[in-house]
Amino acid sequence: MAATLVISALPNANAVVTPGSKCSKAGKKEIYKGKTYTCIKSGDKLTWDKGVKVDTYDSAFAAAFLAEAQDEAEQILADAKLKASQISRAPNCAVGNSQAFVSIGGDPSTGVIALIYENPGNCDLVVRASAEFYCPRGSGGNNTVISRGTLTLKARTKLFVSLNPQRYFPLVTLECAQLTGFTSNTISVANELTRRTEPRVTVESSVFSGVFNQAEATKKANEIIKSAQSRANKIISDAKNPLFIKRAWDGRLKRAAAEKAAAEKAAAEAAEKAAAEAKAAAEKAAAEAKAAAEAAEKAASDAKAAAENARDEALGKACVVGGSCKVGRVGPGGGIVFYDAGTQQSWGRYLEYAPSVFPAGAEKTQWCEKTDYLVGALDQKIGSGRANTDLILKICTSGAAVLARAYKGGGKDDWSLPSKDELSALHYYDRSRPDSCCTFPFGRGIFYWSSSENSATGAWYRVFGYGYEGAYIKQADHLYVKPIRAF
């Protein structure tokens, strides 16, 4: 078993502490024989508690701590020797050892886009550069040129090319003029929207223009190594100090505790997320089950309605108010059902049209005998035909609405002139019937009145068979009437 190292620097490490014995101040702590004791209040007395075992490091941890320190010290010395060797030699300014870089960014002095040339080395460079520039007044997709130039870059400097690229790329003005036919002084660096190629730079020559002092360089290199050696020695010395070892040990314990807490928190969050996902999945499943049940209920209802319709058709029965019906069946007024809203509306659910025609000469009429008079029958929606007809009858004593209301099919007195949209629905039913070409009584090219006004002087109509609609003057006397009713 590894031996436990004792830190003599800990305060009061030799004080004798006995659990239950008297102490002087509540909250005071003492370390004795590997335990931390706390002074607590028990009734009216202050006594030492039973103590908590102190976590201490062993020789294996101390050896690992020292090994890490030695690795760090060796790296510091290696870095220092490399830097010293570089300083103690004159700069090697061969072209192969020199580098220049180019990027595109903002010019801090002008605030506009710029080519940024950088020389990070100790040698002055002459470089060959190529870049793309934007030529004003060029056509879309043909407004940039690639120009070349020679630049001088001093050691450890940056060069910004932005507002005056002609200074470094002397041919760019001529190249833009050849491209666009215009000479301009507002040539700029191509941005990310117009640029097709990236800028390039290559080193043509490199020279060291400074003064190299071998004695000073050697002295500075030796100082770097000496300083690094001092740092390395201190790191190793600290790694052997029990106080520093204890701090590292405590730090490891804190990190372990933090990692444990983080892991527990992550596990709790994962569990919470899993619970939330499970709840969401359960709710989704419940919703899907409910939707399936509603769909099944609707299917059963539709099947029942279909069976009732089939039975009624077999018995030759007409649809009744409040019951289910089907387009094409006979309505309560003896008409043919041509529209189903799907659900009960404020005006009803179904619309039927009068199947019989009026006596010869009576089915064609003007809309109203009144002229330049807005009766207020402006609603065009399905279900508004009856209300429109009621409004018309308050003003007009003859015409389409009067003729439609006069129809009493099935003994019903609420037959009305269809609204614009109701007339459209009737025409759709006409066109959708397989026999509409030959037997449907509406005919083709026949104009029918609606009950929806277009203005004070006009009302909407539709031409059956062809389908177009428009507005016609109310005094026209050659349009037909087809009564409908809702139930």
What is the fold's blueprint, element by element?
Blueprint (H helix, E strand, L loop, with lengths): L28 E4 L2 E8 L2 E4 L3 E2 L5 H29 L13 E6 L6 E7 L4 E16 L2 E12 L3 E5 L10 H9 L7 E2 L10 E8 L6 H27 L1 H74 L20 E10 L2 E6 L10 E2 L19 H9 L6 H7 L13 H13 L13 E8 L4 E7 L4 E5 L5 E2 L3 E3 L1
Antiparallel strand pairs: 1-2, 2-3, 2-4, 5-6, 6-9, 7-8, 7-10, 7-11, 12-13, 13-19, 14-18, 15-16, 16-17
Helix pairs in contact: 1-3
Task: Sum this structure up briefly.
The chain has 487 residues and is an alpha+beta fold.
What is the arithmetic mean of pLDDT? 87
Structural class: alpha+beta
Give me the Rg, rounded: 50 Å
Largest sheet, if any?
4 strands, antiparallel
Percentage of residues assigned to helices: 25-40%
Shape: flat
Strand percentage lies at 15-25%
What distance lies between the first and last C-alpha atoms, to the nearest angstrom? 98 Å
What's the β-strand tally? 19
Order of helices and strands: EEEEHEEEEEHEEHHEEEHHHEEEEE
Structure description:
The chain is an alpha+beta fold. 34% of the residues lie in helices and 24% in strands. Among the domains are: 95-211, no CATH class; 336-486. It has seven helices and 19 strands. Strands 1, 2, 3 and 4 form a four-stranded antiparallel beta sheet that branches. Strands 7, 8, 10 and 11 form a four-stranded antiparallel beta sheet that branches.
